[in-house]
């Protein structure tokens, strides 16, 4: 099971609640700007509930990208210690996207989401309709970059792992078939290749 690190750019996104993360093993780091003097009680209380799996990082200096550089530094440190981790940068700042493409090229799982609810693991667990499930799977596979499964069996196992191994063989086969019908994947001799939107960076 991969460790999920949620790195929140608090200058850019201020979540009202972390309740959506309850029940999901995550390590949360909130990066707070130098000029941000106050944290809402609800957020502080929610972070306390994570115990040692949550921390604040207060940025010492000002500058247009000061906080962004801190997030990049922490991902580098954490990726060295935990190379199989999955990093979720919560920010509306598209300036992170070149970093994320570079991380994917280095086979480091990373994705930027504008909101906590967009994290693939959470989208999967909250998905009820078939369409929502496919959307969540697409988001997760797109985040893997060049580390996507190359065989149908591995793809099925990957999808099942996203759903906490609660899907039976027929459900998995139906999802793979739906992805083929929507031309998201191409299967030849049990080998899988990917098409947009999955293959887009």
Explain how this protein is built.
- The radius of gyration is 18 Å and the shape is globular.
- The model has no long low-confidence stretch (mean pLDDT 87).
- 39% of the residues lie in helices and 18% in strands.
- The chain has 201 residues and is of the alpha/beta class.
- A five-stranded parallel sheet has the order 3-2-1-4-5, sandwiched between helices.
- The relative contact order is 0.12.
- A hairpin with a 2-residue loop joins β6 (185-188) and β7.
- It starts with a strand and ends in a 7-residue tail after the last strand.
- It folds into two domains: 4-116, Rossmann fold (3-Layer(aba) Sandwich), CATH 3.40.50; 123-194, Orthogonal Bundle (Arc Repressor Mutant, subunit A).
Per-chain topology:
Elements: E1 4-9, E2 26-32, H1 41-49, E3 54-58, H2 66-81, E4 86-90, H3 97-105, E5 109-113, H4 120-126, H5 130-143, H6 152-162, H7 169-181, E6 185-188, E7 191-194
Parallel strand pairs: 1-2, 1-4, 2-3, 4-5
Antiparallel strand pairs: 6-7
Helix pairs in contact: 4-5
Could you give a short description of this structure?
The protein has 201 residues and is of the alpha/beta class. It has helices at residues 41-49, 66-81, 97-105, 120-126, 130-143, 152-162, 169-181, and strands at 4-9, 26-32, 54-58, 86-90, 109-113, 185-188, 191-194.
Oligomer: single chain
Radius of gyration using CA atoms only: 18 Å
Please provide the count of β strands: 7
Can you tell me the number of structural domains? Answer: 2
Count of discrete alpha- or pi-helical segments spanning 4 or more residues: 7
Query: Which regions are unreliable across 5 or more consecutive residues at pLDDT < 50?
Result: none
Percentage of β-strand residues: 15-25%
Can you give the helix content as a percent range? 25-40%
Order of helices and strands: EEHEHEHEHHHHEE
| N-C termini distance | 24 Å
Q: Biggest β-sheet, characterized?
A: 5 strands, parallel
Strand ordering within the main sheet? 3-2-1-4-5
CATH first level of the largest domain: which class? Alpha Beta
Structural class, by secondary structure, is: alpha/beta
Shape: globular
What is the third-level CATH name, the topology of the largest domain? Rossmann fold
Mean pLDDT: 87
CATH architecture of the largest domain: 3-Layer(aba) Sandwich
């Amino acid at each position: 099971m991969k460790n999920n690190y949620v790195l929140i750019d608090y200058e850019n996104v201020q979540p009202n609640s972390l309740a959506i993360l309850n029940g999901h093993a995550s390590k949360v780091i909130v990066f707070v700007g130098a000029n941000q003097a106050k944290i809402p009680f609800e957020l502080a209380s929610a972070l306390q509930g994570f115990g040692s799996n949550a921390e604040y990082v207060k940025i010492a200096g000002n500058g247009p990208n000061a906080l962004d550089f801190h997030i990049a530094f922490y991902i580098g440190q954490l990726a060295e210690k935990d190379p199989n981790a999955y990093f979720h940068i919560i920010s509306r700042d598209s300036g992170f996207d070149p970093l994320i493409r570079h991380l994917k090229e280095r086979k480091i799982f990373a994705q930027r989401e504008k909101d906590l609810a967009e994290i693939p693991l959470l989208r999967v667990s909250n998905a009820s309709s078939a369409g929502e499930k496919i959307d969540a799977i697409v988001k997760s596979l797109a985040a893997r970059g060049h580390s996507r499964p190359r065989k149908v069996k591995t793809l099925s196992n990957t999808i099942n792992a996203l759903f906490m191994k609660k899907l039976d063989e027929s459900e998995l086969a139906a999802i793979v078939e739906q992805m083929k019908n929507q031309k998201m994947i191409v299967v030849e001799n049990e080998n899988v290749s990917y098409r947009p939107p999955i293959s887009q960076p």
